[in-house]
Amino acid sequence: MALTLYVDTARWRAHQQTIVQQFPGIVPVCKGNGYGFGHERLADEAARFGSDILAVGTTYEAAKIKDFFSGDLLVLTPFRLGEEPVPLPDRAIRSVSSVEGVRGLVGARVVIEVMSTMKRHGISEEDLPKLHAAIEDVRLEGFAIHLPLDRTDGSDAVQEVSEWMERLRNARLPLQTMFVSHLKAEELARLQQQYPHTRFRARIGTRLWLGDHGATHYTGAVLDVTPVSKGDRFGYRQQKVAGDGHLVVVAGGTSHGVGLEAPKALHGMMPRAKGVARAGLATMNRNQSPFYWDNKQLWFAEPPHMQVSILFVPSDARTPQVGDELKAQLRHTTTQVDRLVDH
């Protein structure tokens, strides 16, 4: 009895191939929880479609994934002086976002991140002249730029990359390889045409692994079903049941990521109004669960437990049975499943 991720393997891999063909030289990204699939599975998939490199989030992830993937490992989190050393093979490539960081990685393979309009981290234009001496002591694998997802000011992603290409060219820095993030296939093609002597490599995670929503779905197995009447007390906090129905215990709790939600950027009045409505209901201990039964979203009877959730099914609905599986809408990047099933 488990929280399960079902994968339509043929459809999932067909989507992967579509993205791989659209982005020649793709750098698949496997970070965090492996986008819900796990590091080992995604490392296997990357090897399956012939990738020579896999991008990971941290040195700790690289230390784990090195046993599952034999190609190069690009660590996306920039090196910081004084960080805890983690033993990694020579095929590991470190990202770096400062001149001091480059100087601290003597002999290492490095990718130098430049500061984009993300303003998260990166080398500034003013620091470019200082790089000449610094890169002599490292094995430079290329430069990288991480772009924003939304461009609300109407600016052009290709133009932003082009401006950095010109800065690097004017600083007489090598431009053999540029790693990019969050570009469309046609934008990447425009850049490749504009700079034919530079190899552009797109780092892609979400679009590669999660781009076809219909290729995967989650379910939670029903573990127990208990009839209740209005006013009955139940659960850890002994709250009263709001009406007649059934309490349904389903696999999937906080340890799986159920009930956890990353903050969202809301645009427009309707999404904001819905957010306010949800917040109002939450103050009265009314929270919708991610689980569905007969195509209807169920309510949490109380906040999810560590490994299970208790849901309320009203008396006028069909009653689930032990062993049934409830579909769940869960965020891949925050969910840890008990099992993954290919079908």
Features:
343 residues, alpha/beta, six-stranded antiparallel barrel, 25% helix, elongated
Task: Walk me through this protein's architecture.
The protein has 343 residues and is α/β, with parallel strands linked by helices. The protein has helices at 9-22, 39-48, 59-65, 99-103, 128-134, 157-170, 185-194, 206-210, 269-282, and strands at residues 3-7, 27-28, 53-56, 72-75, 92-96, 109-114, 139-146, 177-181, 199-204, 216-228, 233-234, 239-240, 245-251, 288-293, 296-300, 308-314, 325-328, 339-342. The strands form 3 sheets. It has an 8-stranded parallel β-sheet with strand order 2-9-8-7-6-5-4-3. Helix 6 packs parallel to helix 7 (185-194). The radius of gyration is 24 Å and the shape is elongated. The model is unreliable at 272-284 (pLDDT under 50).
